[in-house]
Amino acid sequence: MDLPVEKWKLYAKQKWTSLEPALKEKLCPALSLRDCFLLFSPLFQSEDEEYLYSLARNYCVKKDPSMVLLYKAEGNERFRKKEYRTAGMLYSKALAHTEVSTPERAVCYANRSAALFHLDQFEVCLEDIGRALEKGCSHGLYPKIMLRKAECLLSLGRPQEAAEALCSLESKMSAEQSLAADSSQMLLNKLGQLKAKACQGSSFVRPPALPSRTQKGLEPWEENNWISCASAAVRLSVSPSKGRYLAAARDILPGETLVREEAFVSVLCPGEILLLRGSADTTLDEPSDNEDLNCHHCLRRLLASVPCQGCSYAKYCSQTCAQLAWKNYHRIECSLGGLLLTLGVFCHVAFRAILVAGFAEVNTLTRQSCGDDLGEADVAKVSASKEQDLASVPGCDVDGRYRSSYRAVFNLLPHTEKQSPEFLFLCSLSIAALCQRLEDAHLAALVCGKSISESQEGAKAAELKNLGEAMLKHMLQLRCNAQAVTTLRESGSGDKPVASSEQVRLAVGLFPVVSLLNHSCDPNTSVTFKSTTAEVRALQPIAQGQEILHCYGPHKCRMGVAERRKELLSQYFFECQCLPCRSERGSSSQRSASQHGVFRCPACQAPLQGEGMLHCSREACKVQISEDRLQHQLHELQQLTKTALELLDNSQPDRSVKLLLRCRLEARRLLSPEHLMVGEMEDHLAQAYVTLGKWQEAAGHLHSSIQVVEAHYGPSSIEVGQELFKLAQVLFNGCAVPEALCIIRKAERILSVHLGPQGGQVQELQEMQACLEESLGASTAAGGRLLS
Ligand SMILES: *[C@@H]1O[C@H](CO)[C@@H](O)[C@H](O)[C@H]1NC(C)=O
Ligand SMILES: *[C@@H]1O[C@H](CO)[C@@H](O)[C@H](O)[C@H]1NC(C)=O
Ligand SMILES: CC(=O)N[C@H]1CO[C@H](CO)[C@@H](O)[C@@H]1O
Ligand SMILES: [Zn+2]
Ligand SMILES: [Zn+2]
Ligand SMILES: [Zn+2]
Ligand SMILES: [Zn+2]
């Protein structure tokens, strides 16, 4: 969960312990959310504030001019070493610390455009050049970047525009004598060369890079009349036992899109390193994480970020995203950056939700809910009496429609009465801190619009309380309703022949329509994300009337029933009644635990059993070994693997392979064959062989990796799809045509169910297939000719 930083949690815990019993007792008889907030928020005192701010200062997000110089210098250094990707990243970091419309900003854009040019990212390079020009780049910079612009345009096969760029450079040089005088002979020579190229037109251009896979139009679908963002194939139902749930309105086929919903609100999760380190900038060469890699508004992967006008933290993919974010929420969040990082993502989501919803809406709904404060029991009663009467479903609009709106968000259950008092206290204190800060910084008026600044002091306080209450509610709702927004991130440089990628958690969002889905440990659907849009697809045929379920996290392939039960109960407050849970509970509940047992007997490879001191599960074998020792060996293995991967990154694949082969042997000796680490080792080896161009070896190791992934995630899981995708690429590159075609089809079958027919990887597979079939066709045609 994305709660506040440890130190603040600890502080709140101590404060809770020291509260007078009389006060604590007030909480006991299920207090309403409003009373809870009114009871706790006044306890936030100035000494608490002081402590919290001392923590928040660790996460400074202010712009720092000295960091511009530092990052830029390091960027230039890396550029000289031809490490263009790293250089570009460092220029982006430098940019984040520059102020709007300053010469430094123009220089940083110009510098980054040079790195992008060398990465063959001509389109993005042109964007950066445009930004540098518009920020009023200095005299000396102008000729250099105009030449770069012309080169870019030539590379993109646009000689006409290149000629125009050169023309305007020349006319500027003749108009401003100093410009011409300052330009070196080298520049002038280059100008001449480029002019000649531009005149010759497109015959000399480099072939344009592969067209970037732009998002094709969405698949057509029939939207539901009663639930926005859902397909007509689903139906919202209410039953006394299950509450509200989504069911199939007709028979549904695998791969069908059932829900396509943009997040009502989402907040990018900062990388762990940033949070642990406790300051935004200290070292220059640490790995980049979410905050540097993805747009803080739309979550798209960043190549050339646009910095926020106010802070060094927020970065965007485009000016459009920067402006949208600023208008909708960031103009208020910007100066609170450090505090929001300290209070954690849940608190931040709660805050952004009220900013996005707008004060008027929040105020109206809070006041309404205060009047008709239906407990959950009442809701159940209402739904029981009028089954199928959807107007009684909380969150529906008056016309009986359920929309992906603030009203729907507002009506998600906070489960106040099931949360621990200590947790309620932590949340209340954190929200109170945020409210206090809004007031102190005179931001409250901004949040609330005119109405609050004009109103009386008393009314103002009441309105702030409404906001606080709403935020507290959202923070509590997130415990059960937070949806992690995930994406596949290509690891490494991203320009390898075989993409290696990992699933990462990018953000936390609220999706009121996705929230209608109930949980199963063996779900019928799969959720994937494009930007901030969630797509829920059917994994299997779902018959009319069956409930549509997705997995909240505890999946039957990854956890035993006892573990799942514990997690679902503690985080989501319910006992899972899904099929696997009911059947596994009856059978030997030890089964799944031993299935995922970690260590193997060093003598005979049978699984080890027990705790602390492990012993071999084979009676005859008397081996005993302490778990600590095995854990130590495992740790050493992990370190060794890390070294091997670093070798691979530093272009020493041969040495990397040697080391990885040793690691693999050790992993197989130590761990059960289904252990994920055994699979990862095979995957690393495949990657190393790919670097060496040894496709056959790479394919062999991928086959082994796929076996492990299948055992772990199930044969039609997206994880298996990803591994098959890699294998398809390897076979394609290795020209193993028949096998490649077979794997491509298999990968396509699995991935199109999870990602839809328009999914990027699905399209890539289809392109590979077409290419292979063409080559097959050509060779048989040639063969035919030979025969005749
Ligand atoms: C970055 O800009 C500075 C100042 O204009 C320049 O001296 C340096 O060569 C540039 N570096 C790159 C890689 O373009
Ligand atoms: C989800 O289903 C379980 C039974 O599997 C039930 O106990 C729980 O109340 C349901 N939750 C909702 C929100 O309908
Ligand atoms: C709860 C439920 O209906 N789950 C089903 C989802 O689909 C799989 C495969 O058809 C079934 O095995 C589950 O029972
Ligand atoms: Zn964006
Ligand atoms: Zn900002
Ligand atoms: Zn279950
Ligand atoms: Zn043994």
UniProtKB/TrEMBL annotation:
<dbReference type="Pfam" id="PF00856">
    <property type="entry name" value="SET"/>
</dbReference>
<dbReference type="GO" id="GO:0008270">
    <property type="term" value="F:zinc ion binding"/>
</dbReference>
<comment type="function">
    <text>Protein-lysine N-methyltransferase. Monomethylates PRMT5, modulating its transcriptional activity. May also act as a histone methyltransferase. Plays a critical role in cardiac development. Acts as a key epigenetic regulator of gene expression during cardiac development via its dual activities as a methyltransferase and negative regulator of HDAC1.</text>
</comment>
<dbReference type="InterPro" id="IPR052097">
    <property type="entry name" value="SET-MYND_domain_protein"/>
</dbReference>
<keyword id="KW-0863">Zinc-finger</keyword>
<dbReference type="InterPro" id="IPR011990">
    <property type="entry name" value="TPR-like_helical_dom_sf"/>
</dbReference>
<dbReference type="GO" id="GO:0005737">
    <property type="term" value="C:cytoplasm"/>
</dbReference>
<feature type="domain" description="SET">
    <location>
        <begin position="232"/>
        <end position="553"/>
    </location>
</feature>
<feature type="domain" description="MYND-type">
    <location>
        <begin position="295"/>
        <end position="334"/>
    </location>
</feature>
<keyword id="KW-0808">Transferase</keyword>
<protein>
    <recommendedName>
        <fullName>Protein-lysine N-methyltransferase SMYD4</fullName>
    </recommendedName>
</protein>
<dbReference type="InterPro" id="IPR001214">
    <property type="entry name" value="SET_dom"/>
</dbReference>
<dbReference type="Pfam" id="PF01753">
    <property type="entry name" value="zf-MYND"/>
</dbReference>
<keyword id="KW-0862">Zinc</keyword>
<keyword id="KW-0539">Nucleus</keyword>
<keyword id="KW-0963">Cytoplasm</keyword>
<keyword id="KW-0949">S-adenosyl-L-methionine</keyword>
<dbReference type="GO" id="GO:0007507">
    <property type="term" value="P:heart development"/>
</dbReference>
<keyword id="KW-0489">Methyltransferase</keyword>
<dbReference type="GO" id="GO:0005634">
    <property type="term" value="C:nucleus"/>
</dbReference>
<dbReference type="InterPro" id="IPR044421">
    <property type="entry name" value="SMYD4_SET"/>
</dbReference>
<dbReference type="InterPro" id="IPR046341">
    <property type="entry name" value="SET_dom_sf"/>
</dbReference>
<dbReference type="InterPro" id="IPR002893">
    <property type="entry name" value="Znf_MYND"/>
</dbReference>
<dbReference type="GO" id="GO:0008168">
    <property type="term" value="F:methyltransferase activity"/>
</dbReference>
<dbReference type="GO" id="GO:0032259">
    <property type="term" value="P:methylation"/>
</dbReference>
<keyword id="KW-0479">Metal-binding</keyword>
<dbReference type="GO" id="GO:0042826">
    <property type="term" value="F:histone deacetylase binding"/>
</dbReference>
